[in-house]
Design brief:
Layout (H helix, E strand, L loop, with lengths): L1 H12 L3 H15 L2 H16 L3 H14 L6 E3 L5 E3 L5 H5 L5 H12 L6 H8 L13
Antiparallel strand pairs: 1-2
Helix pairs in contact: 1-6, 3-7, 4-6, 6-7
Length: 137
């Protein structure tokens, strides 16, 4: 799955603002549905059962870089850039709205070999028009 995850991250990095906005719009429509909530729960359980928690954690850094925290730096009152390398609750508030659907999609790829295809399809749906599912179904 490493190749597919890496390819996803590269393609995601190349998305423009309008493509990201379309992903967020689809995510907002789909994430309120019960099927999406159940898929997220199944994803979490599958990651644990497959023993891929370390891989999940390893994806956080690259994905956080791609979804911006105000482009890696914020400015304090003096105008000096401050380090935002750690992830606190305040940092999460600064994430691009595309973070959640991107995370769901990349984690679905991470465990696609053991995740039910219907669950993977549900979780990947917000991004599928912008980044095609890289695995045969």
């Amino acid at each position: 799955m490493t190749t597919q995850v890496r390819r996803f991250l590269v393609q995601f990095a190349g998305l423009g603002a309008s493509a990201r906005a379309r992903i967020v719009e689809r995510y907002l429509d789909l994430s309120s549905q019960r099927a999406f909530a159940l898929a997220e729960q199944a994803l979490a359980e599958t990651i644990v059962q497959a023993g891929r928690i370390a891989e999940q954690d390893a994806l956080a850094g690259p994905l956080l870089q791609l979804v911006g925290r105000e482009r890696h730096a914020s400015h304090d009152q003096t105008g000096d850039a401050t380090d935002v390398g750690s992830t606190s609750d305040d940092d999460v508030a600064h994430l691009d709205k595309v973070a959640e659907p991107a995370l769901a999609a990349v984690l679905a790829l991470l465990v696609a070999d053991v995740l039910l295809p219907s669950v993977a399809t549900t979780l990947y749906a917000p991004v599928c028009d912008e980044i095609a599912w890289p695995l045969s179904r």
